[in-house]
Protein backbone atom coordinates (compact mmCIF):
# COMPACT_ATOMS: atom_id res chain seq x y z
CA UNK A 1 0.00 0.00 0.00
CA UNK A 2 1.28 3.45 -0.87
CA UNK A 3 1.38 5.64 2.24
CA UNK A 4 3.54 8.49 0.98
CA UNK A 5 5.93 7.75 3.79
CA UNK A 6 9.49 6.83 2.81
CA UNK A 7 10.65 3.37 3.73
CA UNK A 8 13.80 2.87 5.76
CA UNK A 9 15.59 1.81 2.58
CA UNK A 10 14.45 4.96 0.79
CA UNK A 11 15.66 7.13 3.66
CA UNK A 12 19.02 5.41 3.61
CA UNK A 13 19.32 5.75 -0.17
CA UNK A 14 18.38 9.43 -0.04
CA UNK A 15 21.00 10.13 2.62
CA UNK A 16 23.68 8.26 0.70
CA UNK A 17 22.77 10.10 -2.51
CA UNK A 18 22.81 13.49 -0.75
CA UNK A 19 26.23 12.80 0.75
CA UNK A 20 27.54 11.98 -2.71
CA UNK A 21 25.97 15.15 -4.17
CA UNK A 22 27.62 17.28 -1.50
CA UNK A 23 31.01 15.70 -2.07
CA UNK A 24 30.73 16.12 -5.82
CA UNK A 25 29.60 19.73 -5.44
CA UNK A 26 32.69 20.39 -3.32
CA UNK A 27 34.86 18.78 -6.00
CA UNK A 28 35.97 16.05 -3.62
CA UNK A 29 36.53 12.40 -4.48
CA UNK A 30 33.65 10.15 -3.49
CA UNK A 31 34.98 7.14 -1.62
CA UNK A 32 32.93 3.98 -1.24
CA UNK A 33 31.18 4.11 2.14
CA UNK A 34 28.67 2.07 4.07
CA UNK A 35 26.71 2.26 7.31
CA UNK A 36 29.70 1.50 9.51
CA UNK A 37 31.87 4.29 8.13
CA UNK A 38 32.54 7.40 10.13
CA UNK A 39 30.64 10.31 8.55
CA UNK A 40 33.77 12.42 8.42
CA UNK A 41 35.71 9.65 6.67
CA UNK A 42 33.46 10.15 3.64
CA UNK A 43 35.14 13.52 3.15
CA UNK A 44 32.32 15.61 4.55
CA UNK A 45 33.38 18.51 6.75
CA UNK A 46 31.27 19.55 9.73
CA UNK A 47 29.87 22.42 7.65
CA UNK A 48 28.99 19.94 4.88
CA UNK A 49 27.15 17.98 7.55
CA UNK A 50 25.15 21.10 8.39
CA UNK A 51 24.34 21.46 4.67
CA UNK A 52 23.31 17.80 4.55
CA UNK A 53 20.92 18.28 7.47
CA UNK A 54 19.47 21.37 5.77
CA UNK A 55 18.92 19.46 2.51
CA UNK A 56 17.23 16.62 4.37
CA UNK A 57 15.06 19.10 6.26
CA UNK A 58 13.87 20.55 2.93
CA UNK A 59 12.97 17.07 1.78
CA UNK A 60 11.32 15.67 4.90
CA UNK A 61 10.43 18.89 6.76
CA UNK A 62 12.23 17.72 9.84
CA UNK A 63 15.47 18.58 11.63
CA UNK A 64 16.00 15.95 14.33
CA UNK A 65 18.97 17.91 15.65
CA UNK A 66 16.93 20.98 16.50
CA UNK A 67 15.53 19.42 19.65
CA UNK A 68 15.43 15.65 19.80
CA UNK A 69 18.99 14.57 19.24
CA UNK A 70 22.49 15.96 19.67
CA UNK A 71 24.64 15.81 16.54
CA UNK A 72 27.46 14.58 18.76
CA UNK A 73 25.53 11.32 19.17
CA UNK A 74 25.88 10.69 15.44
CA UNK A 75 29.22 9.24 14.40
CA UNK A 76 28.64 6.92 11.47
CA UNK A 77 26.62 7.05 8.26
CA UNK A 78 24.40 4.39 9.84
CA UNK A 79 23.82 6.54 12.95
CA UNK A 80 22.61 9.34 10.70
CA UNK A 81 20.33 7.04 8.69
CA UNK A 82 18.84 5.55 11.85
CA UNK A 83 18.20 9.03 13.27
CA UNK A 84 16.13 9.96 10.22
CA UNK A 85 14.48 6.55 10.07
CA UNK A 86 13.33 7.07 13.67
CA UNK A 87 12.09 10.61 13.16
CA UNK A 88 10.79 10.99 9.60
CA UNK A 89 7.84 8.67 9.98
CA UNK A 90 7.24 9.45 13.64
CA UNK A 91 5.76 12.86 12.85
CA UNK B 1 41.11 42.60 53.82
CA UNK B 2 38.86 41.48 56.67
CA UNK B 3 36.61 38.51 56.42
CA UNK B 4 34.32 38.80 53.41
CA UNK B 5 31.21 36.89 52.49
CA UNK B 6 31.95 35.51 49.03
CA UNK B 7 29.17 34.00 46.95
CA UNK B 8 30.48 31.89 44.07
CA UNK B 9 28.11 30.55 41.45
CA UNK B 10 29.31 27.26 40.05
CA UNK B 11 31.61 26.82 43.03
CA UNK B 12 31.21 23.10 43.47
CA UNK B 13 33.93 22.02 41.04
CA UNK B 14 36.64 23.24 38.68
CA UNK B 15 37.61 26.90 38.71
CA UNK B 16 34.76 27.85 41.06
CA UNK B 17 35.92 25.30 43.62
CA UNK B 18 39.53 26.50 43.27
CA UNK B 19 38.45 30.10 43.94
CA UNK B 20 36.36 28.90 46.88
CA UNK B 21 39.30 26.97 48.31
CA UNK B 22 41.60 29.99 48.09
CA UNK B 23 38.96 32.26 49.67
CA UNK B 24 38.62 29.80 52.55
CA UNK B 25 42.42 29.69 52.93
CA UNK B 26 42.37 33.47 53.29
CA UNK B 27 39.76 33.30 56.03
CA UNK B 28 36.71 34.38 54.05
CA UNK B 29 33.23 32.97 54.35
CA UNK B 30 32.21 31.14 51.18
CA UNK B 31 28.75 30.31 49.91
CA UNK B 32 28.00 28.31 46.82
CA UNK B 33 25.30 26.15 45.32
CA UNK B 34 24.91 23.44 42.75
CA UNK B 35 22.26 20.96 41.74
CA UNK B 36 24.08 18.02 43.27
CA UNK B 37 26.77 17.56 45.85
CA UNK B 38 30.38 17.07 44.73
CA UNK B 39 33.49 15.70 46.46
CA UNK B 40 34.68 19.29 47.01
CA UNK B 41 31.45 20.20 48.80
CA UNK B 42 31.58 17.05 50.93
CA UNK B 43 35.15 17.87 51.91
CA UNK B 44 34.20 21.38 53.03
CA UNK B 45 31.14 20.17 54.91
CA UNK B 46 33.26 17.66 56.79
CA UNK B 47 35.69 20.42 57.76
CA UNK B 48 32.92 22.80 58.76
CA UNK B 49 29.80 20.82 59.72
CA UNK B 50 28.16 23.84 61.37
CA UNK B 51 28.52 25.92 58.23
CA UNK B 52 30.39 28.68 60.03
CA UNK B 53 32.54 29.60 57.05
CA UNK B 54 31.17 27.43 54.28
CA UNK B 55 27.59 27.26 53.11
CA UNK B 56 26.23 25.08 50.33
CA UNK B 57 22.69 24.36 49.20
CA UNK B 58 21.27 22.25 46.45
CA UNK B 59 19.93 24.87 44.05
CA UNK B 60 19.23 24.75 40.35
CA UNK B 61 20.61 28.00 38.96
CA UNK B 62 17.72 28.16 36.50
CA UNK B 63 15.19 28.32 39.35
CA UNK B 64 14.67 32.03 40.14
CA UNK B 65 12.79 31.43 43.39
CA UNK B 66 15.42 29.01 44.69
CA UNK B 67 18.19 31.49 43.86
CA UNK B 68 16.36 34.24 45.72
CA UNK B 69 15.88 32.00 48.76
CA UNK B 70 19.59 31.17 48.66
CA UNK B 71 20.65 34.84 48.64
CA UNK B 72 18.06 35.66 51.35
CA UNK B 73 19.53 32.91 53.52
CA UNK B 74 22.98 34.43 53.18
CA UNK B 75 21.62 37.81 54.25
CA UNK B 76 20.03 36.25 57.34
CA UNK B 77 22.97 34.08 58.32
CA UNK B 78 25.94 36.23 57.34
CA UNK B 79 24.57 39.73 56.88
CA UNK B 80 24.74 39.83 53.09
CA UNK B 81 27.13 39.22 50.23
CA UNK B 82 30.33 41.28 49.98
CA UNK B 83 31.76 39.61 46.90
CA UNK B 84 29.88 37.89 44.10
CA UNK B 85 31.88 35.68 41.75
CA UNK B 86 29.73 34.80 38.75
CA UNK B 87 31.39 31.64 37.60
CA UNK B 88 28.46 29.37 36.69
CA UNK B 89 28.72 28.19 33.12
CA UNK B 90 28.06 25.25 30.88
CA UNK B 91 30.02 24.49 27.75
CA UNK B 92 27.70 23.30 25.02
CA UNK B 93 29.99 23.25 22.04
CA UNK B 94 29.47 22.28 18.42
CA UNK B 95 28.68 23.63 15.02
CA UNK B 96 26.03 26.33 15.44
CA UNK B 97 23.69 25.31 12.59
CA UNK B 98 23.42 21.88 14.21
CA UNK B 99 23.05 22.99 17.81
CA UNK B 100 19.99 21.82 19.73
CA UNK B 101 17.63 24.55 20.88
CA UNK B 102 17.73 23.06 24.37
CA UNK B 103 21.51 23.47 24.48
CA UNK B 104 21.21 27.08 23.31
CA UNK B 105 18.63 27.83 26.00
CA UNK B 106 20.69 26.15 28.70
CA UNK B 107 23.81 28.10 27.71
CA UNK B 108 21.98 31.42 27.72
CA UNK B 109 20.26 30.61 31.01
CA UNK B 110 23.21 29.30 32.99
CA UNK B 111 26.06 31.37 31.54
CA UNK B 112 24.19 34.64 31.38
CA UNK B 113 20.77 34.81 32.99
CA UNK B 114 21.67 33.07 36.26
CA UNK B 115 24.66 35.33 36.72
CA UNK B 116 22.76 38.52 35.85
CA UNK B 117 19.99 37.49 38.23
CA UNK B 118 22.49 36.82 41.04
CA UNK B 119 23.94 40.29 40.55
CA UNK B 120 20.42 41.72 40.68
CA UNK B 121 19.77 39.91 43.95
CA UNK B 122 23.08 40.87 45.57
CA UNK B 123 23.55 44.49 44.51
CA UNK B 124 20.76 46.13 46.57
CA UNK B 125 22.51 45.29 49.84
CA UNK B 126 25.90 46.24 48.35
CA UNK B 127 24.45 49.62 47.41
CA UNK B 128 22.96 50.14 50.85
CA UNK B 129 26.27 49.21 52.50
CA UNK B 130 28.21 51.38 50.03
CA UNK B 131 30.61 48.66 49.00
CA UNK B 132 31.02 45.38 47.26
CA UNK B 133 32.66 43.57 44.44
CA UNK B 134 31.43 41.54 41.50
CA UNK B 135 33.68 39.37 39.39
CA UNK B 136 32.26 37.87 36.21
CA UNK B 137 34.16 34.91 34.85
CA UNK B 138 34.34 35.48 31.11
CA UNK B 139 36.54 33.75 28.55
CA UNK B 140 39.01 34.48 25.78
CA UNK B 141 36.20 33.28 23.55
CA UNK B 142 34.46 36.57 24.32
CA UNK B 143 37.39 38.36 22.71
CA UNK B 144 38.35 36.13 19.78
CA UNK B 145 36.21 34.19 17.37
CA UNK B 146 36.53 30.44 17.37
CA UNK B 147 34.44 27.89 15.52
CA UNK B 148 32.16 25.70 17.58
CA UNK B 149 31.71 28.06 20.51
CA UNK B 150 29.32 30.69 19.10
CA UNK B 151 26.71 30.63 21.84
CA UNK B 152 29.26 30.21 24.61
CA UNK B 153 31.17 33.20 23.19
CA UNK B 154 27.99 35.25 22.98
CA UNK B 155 27.19 34.64 26.64
CA UNK B 156 30.70 35.50 27.76
CA UNK B 157 30.86 38.66 25.62
CA UNK B 158 27.50 39.64 27.10
CA UNK B 159 28.96 39.23 30.57
CA UNK B 160 31.83 41.56 29.61
CA UNK B 161 29.34 44.20 28.47
CA UNK B 162 27.41 43.69 31.67
CA UNK B 163 30.66 44.21 33.60
CA UNK B 164 31.46 47.53 31.96
CA UNK B 165 27.96 48.97 32.26
CA UNK B 166 27.54 47.85 35.84
CA UNK B 167 30.97 49.22 36.78
CA UNK B 168 29.88 52.68 35.57
CA UNK B 169 26.53 52.43 37.29
CA UNK B 170 27.73 51.12 40.64
CA UNK B 171 31.16 52.73 40.88
CA UNK B 172 29.80 55.78 42.74
CA UNK B 173 28.58 53.37 45.42
CA UNK B 174 32.06 51.90 45.82
CA UNK B 175 31.11 48.67 44.12
CA UNK B 176 33.74 47.30 41.75
CA UNK B 177 32.75 45.11 38.80
CA UNK B 178 35.33 43.27 36.73
CA UNK B 179 35.65 40.36 34.34
CA UNK B 180 38.28 37.68 34.25
CA UNK B 181 38.85 36.07 30.86
CA UNK B 182 40.75 32.82 31.23
CA UNK B 183 42.44 31.23 28.27
CA UNK B 184 42.75 27.50 27.99
CA UNK B 185 43.51 25.87 31.27
CA UNK B 186 43.43 22.37 32.60
CA UNK B 187 39.71 21.88 33.22
CA UNK B 188 36.69 19.76 32.36
CA UNK B 189 36.08 22.03 29.37
CA UNK B 190 39.30 20.97 27.65
CA UNK B 191 39.19 17.36 28.82
CA UNK B 192 37.20 16.31 25.76
CA UNK B 193 39.83 17.61 23.33
CA UNK B 194 41.85 15.11 21.35
CA UNK B 195 45.61 14.93 21.79
CA UNK B 196 46.01 16.64 18.41
CA UNK B 197 43.67 19.49 19.37
CA UNK B 198 45.48 19.89 22.68
CA UNK B 199 48.83 20.02 20.89
CA UNK B 200 47.48 22.70 18.54
CA UNK B 201 46.23 24.73 21.50
CA UNK B 202 49.59 24.57 23.22
CA UNK B 203 51.38 25.58 20.02
CA UNK B 204 49.14 28.62 19.60
CA UNK B 205 49.91 29.76 23.15
CA UNK B 206 53.06 31.92 23.44
CA UNK B 207 53.86 30.41 26.84
CA UNK B 208 53.57 26.97 25.18
CA UNK B 209 51.37 25.37 27.80
CA UNK B 210 47.86 25.38 29.18
CA UNK B 211 47.24 27.35 32.34
CA UNK B 212 46.46 25.69 35.63
CA UNK B 213 43.23 26.18 37.51
CA UNK B 214 45.25 27.59 40.41
CA UNK B 215 46.77 30.27 38.17
CA UNK B 216 43.32 31.39 37.06
CA UNK B 217 42.04 31.32 40.65
CA UNK B 218 44.94 33.51 41.78
CA UNK B 219 44.00 36.12 39.17
CA UNK B 220 40.42 36.01 40.44
CA UNK B 221 41.63 36.46 44.01
CA UNK B 222 43.65 39.47 42.91
CA UNK B 223 40.63 41.14 41.31
CA UNK B 224 38.46 40.73 44.40
CA UNK B 225 41.23 41.79 46.78
CA UNK B 226 42.12 45.29 48.05
CA UNK B 227 45.18 45.11 45.75
CA UNK B 228 42.71 45.77 42.92
CA UNK B 229 40.88 48.54 44.79
CA UNK B 230 41.22 51.01 41.87
CA UNK B 231 40.33 48.53 39.15
CA UNK B 232 36.77 48.42 37.87
CA UNK B 233 35.09 47.83 34.53
CA UNK B 234 38.11 45.85 33.41
CA UNK B 235 38.46 42.50 31.69
CA UNK B 236 41.65 40.84 32.84
CA UNK B 237 42.87 38.31 30.28
CA UNK B 238 44.82 35.40 31.75
CA UNK B 239 45.64 33.25 28.76
CA UNK B 240 49.37 32.66 28.39
CA UNK B 241 49.34 35.15 25.54
CA UNK B 242 46.78 33.45 23.27
CA UNK B 243 45.05 36.76 22.46
CA UNK B 244 48.10 38.97 22.27
Q: Can I get a quick summary?
A:
The complex is a heterodimer of chains A (91) and B (244). Chain A is mainly α and 91 residues long.
Structural class of chain B: alpha/beta
Q: What is the CATH architecture annotation of chain B?
A: 3-Layer(aba) Sandwich
The percentage of residues in β strands of chain A lies in under 5%
- Structural class call of chain A reads mainly alpha
Tally of alpha and pi helices of chain B: 8
Secondary-structure element order of chain A, N to C: HHH
Q: What would the CATH topology of chain B be?
A: Rossmann fold
What would you say the CATH architecture of chain A is? Orthogonal Bundle
Give a description of the structure.
- The complex is a heterodimer of chains A (91) and B (244).
- With 91 residues, chain A is mostly helical.
- Chain A has 3 helices and no strands.
- In chain A, helix 1 packs across helix 2 and helix 1 packs across helix 3.
- Chain A is globular and about 35 Å long.
- Chain A starts with 7 loop residues before the first helix and ends with a helix.
- Chain B has one domain: NAD(P)-binding Rossmann-like Domain (Rossmann fold), CATH 3.40.50.720.
- Helices cover 45% and strands 16% of the residues of chain B.
- The mean pLDDT of chain B is 94.
Amino acid sequence: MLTGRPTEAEIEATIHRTIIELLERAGKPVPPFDEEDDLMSTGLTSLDLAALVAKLERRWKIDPFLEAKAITEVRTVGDLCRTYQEHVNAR
Amino acid sequence: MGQQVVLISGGSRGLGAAIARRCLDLGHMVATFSRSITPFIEEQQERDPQGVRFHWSSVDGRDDEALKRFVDTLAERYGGVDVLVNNAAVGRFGLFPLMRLGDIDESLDVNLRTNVLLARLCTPSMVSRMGGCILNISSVNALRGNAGVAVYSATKAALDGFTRALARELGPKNIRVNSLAPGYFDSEMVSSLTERQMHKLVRSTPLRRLGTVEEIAEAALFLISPAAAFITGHTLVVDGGVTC
